[in-house]
Input
Amino acid sequence: GKRSYKEKVLKLLDPAKKPLYWITATEFGWHLEEGTDYWAVYHGYVSITPLQLDLTNYKAIETLKNRLKFSSGVER
Output
């Protein structure tokens, strides 16, 4: 679902009297937008969200291997 937040920046002083900024966000509310998980649960449905656990970018690994091999001048 979609949430709205209300942000606030607090200016404080640390123990050494230097400025310190604390950014806070409080939940402002939910949007009951059809098609979101929040809408489904609110209306008594089950929400199923497919997740992808492996976020490794295999193409980037190969690119890095090639660049590192080239920059070091070492062939393996």
Notes: The chain has one domain: 2-72. The helical segments are 37-42, 58-72. Residues 2-72 form one domain.
